[in-house]
Design goal:
CATH topology: Alpha-Beta Plaits
Order of helices and strands: EHEEHHE
Protein name: Heme-degrading monooxygenase HmoA
GO molecular function: monooxygenase activity
Distance between the termini: 9 Å
CATH class: Alpha Beta
Keywords: Monooxygenase, Oxidoreductase
Strand order of the largest sheet: 2-3-1-4
Structural class: alpha+beta
Number of domains: 1
Helix content: 10-25%
InterPro entries: ABM_dom (IPR007138), Dimeric_a/b-barrel (IPR011008), Heme-degrading_MO (IPR050404)
Number of strands: 4
Oligomer: single chain
Organism: Pseudoduganella namucuonensis
Length: 99
């Protein structure tokens, strides 16, 4: 299994709109080959920071999704004017050892 973690922090006051966009997301990833599940979380100490966790059968499935038209389409709900905090974006790629 493969896990992708995207971490970012909102630099302006759109964290509520980002949260709403994730709740109303179009679920396009749900039918991507190799997709297992997705979760979005906020650290308790910082509601402007978001962690997007997606589990996949393998890294190749994630990479195929990440370069697909559906991936770009799934980001259409990003709030207009969103600004991310510099130095607070990161993407981690992990092979899951045990679940």
């Amino acid at each position: 299994m493969f896990l992708s973690i995207s971490r970012f922090a909102v630099a302006n006051d759109l964290d509520g709109a980002v949260r709403d966009a994730f709740i109303a997301r179009p679920h396009l990833v749900d039918t991507a080959p190799g997709f297992i599940r997705m979760e979005v979380a906020n650290p308790c100490a910082d509601e402007k920071e978001f962690w997007l966790l997606t589990w996949w059968r393998d890294a190749a499935s994630f990479d195929a999704w990440h370069h697909s038209h559906s991936y770009r389409e799934s980001h259409r709900g990003i709030p207009k004017g969103l600004k991310l905090a510099k130095g607070r974006t990161e993407m981690l790629r992990l092979d899951v050892v045990a679940a």
